[in-house]
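PROTEIN DESIGN WORKSHEET
SECTION A - STRUCTURE
LENGTH: 432
TOKENS:
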């Protein structure tokens, strides 16, 4: 597996670990939608901090406001559960989720770049998780896991039998608040990287799958962790092979794992119906792979000809200084890096050439990078090159991997790199 995929895989495994445990508690408490509700409150806090306090999504202030809103929601749920008998707690959670979602959508509507918040809130960006984010998340998950270990007896008792614990004199409201607060910490950290969809899938699906085969906590944990780990590996391989979004891809495999497990449980081993379910699953995956491959082949742009390479201003030295006048010239077929780029046979090899150029030949790095980005390669490889560019320059380039090269934001980034003269539009586009 590529080193680029190692951090997303480790992050997925960390999510599978903590969410598998929390999911068993959630199922026993019958509060299935607590995760997605708290995630919506976290989104309200993050977007509100961005709109009112101008806090960036990855800032400490944004996280603090998001966590504060989640803790308030946790206190509300803990208070309401013991005092509302006429309305199930799941209904209260559902209503609060709808209100939080409406608030999030309202804030998204008035926030600059609101569509970015929607994308991040739902799908996340686990593929681009950094090692710093990963270590922070693992530390937070470990701390929460330690607290669950320390307070295992009362928390488990409340999860197993809320009413019985209340009758026995256990202060269920306080333990409920602690449970919701710890869940909120995990969700605030996880949603910022993985998005609502993947976090909800990790919380519910592995725990549900484990409940089909075991009743003991340890057995359920082992099954839930195995399902989460397997879906993480398959989802990442599937997504990177076809240039899909990683989060929804992992969620897809989690759902398929539950469907297969349910059929296996219902019809036992090797029966005709189980074979049909497994065969249908294989056909479904084959169809998805086939359609995605077909679309990718139709949309893949042809490599730009060397003569069409974007010119670079002779005095362009914004981040990477050119060493001589030859370095400032536009790339041509005589440029060894451009030649290597044209010789590369697939997207992975092309991105490797550009990254190698960035790290070894700074004099030509900007030109080769722009030459590559003009071809609008698949998002995964495009982002890898942009990350390498940011690393080499020591400053954000401003390129948005989710948009084509001719998008205004990317042309502005290219103009900054070339000293103010934006490269011409790629061939085949308006004005090209």
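SECTION B - SEQUENCE
RESIDUE ASSIGNMENT:
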């Amino acid at each position: 597996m590529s080193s680029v995929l190692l951090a997303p895989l480790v992050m997925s495994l960390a999510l599978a670990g903590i969410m598998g445990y929390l999911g068993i508690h959630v199922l026993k408490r019958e509060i299935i939608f607590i995760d997605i509700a708290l995630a919506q409150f976290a989104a309200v806090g993050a977007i509100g901090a961005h709109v009112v306090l101008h806090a960036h999504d990855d800032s400490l202030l944004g996280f603090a406001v998001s966590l504060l809103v989640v803790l308030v929601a946790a206190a509300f749920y803990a208070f309401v559960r013991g005092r509302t008998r006429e309305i199930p707690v799941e209904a209260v959670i559902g209503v609060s989720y709808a209100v939080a979602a409406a608030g999030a959508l309202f804030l998204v509507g008035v926030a600059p770049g609101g569509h970015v918040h929607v994308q991040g809130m739902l799908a996340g960006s686990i593929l681009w998780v950094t090692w710093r984010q990963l270590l922070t998340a693992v530390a937070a998950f470990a701390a929460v896991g330690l607290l669950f270990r320390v307070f295992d007896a009362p928390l488990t008792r409340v999860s197993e039998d809320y009413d019985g614990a209340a009758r026995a004199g256990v202060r269920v409201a306080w333990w409920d608040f602690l449970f919701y607060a710890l869940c909120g910490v995990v969700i605030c950290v996880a949603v910022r990287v993985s998005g609502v969809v993947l976090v909800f899938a990790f919380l519910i699906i592995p725990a549900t799958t484990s409940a089909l085969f075991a009743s003991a906590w340890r057995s359920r944990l082992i099954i839930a962790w195995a399902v989460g780990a397997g879906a993480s590996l398959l989802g990442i391989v599937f997504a990177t092979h076809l240039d899909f979004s990683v989060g929804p891809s992992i969620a897809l495999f989690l759902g398929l794992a539950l469907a297969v497990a349910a059929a296996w449980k219902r019809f036992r081993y090797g029966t005709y119906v189980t074979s049909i379910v497994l065969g249908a699953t294989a056909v479904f995956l084959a169809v998805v792979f086939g359609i995605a491959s077909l679309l990718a082949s139709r949309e893949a742009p042809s490599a730009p000809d060397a003569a069409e390479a974007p010119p670079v201003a002779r005095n362009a030295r914004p981040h990477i200084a050119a060493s001589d006048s030859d370095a400032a010239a536009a790339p041509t077929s005589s440029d060894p890096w451009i030649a290597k780029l044209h010789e590369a046979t697939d997207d992975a090899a092309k991105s490797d050439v550009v990254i190698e150029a960035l790290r070894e030949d700074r004099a030509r790095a900007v030109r080769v990078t722009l030459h590559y980005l003009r071809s609008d390669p698949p998002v995964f490889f495009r982002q890898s090159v942009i990350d390498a560019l940011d690393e080499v320059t020591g400053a954000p380039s401003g390129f948005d991997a989710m948009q084509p090269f001719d998008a205004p934001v990317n042309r502005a980034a290219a103009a900054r790199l070339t000293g103010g003269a934006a490269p011409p539009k790629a061939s085949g586009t308006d004005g090209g």
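SECTION C - NOTES
The chain has two domains: 3-215, 306-417.
Residues 298-333, 421-432 have pLDDT under 50 and may be disordered.
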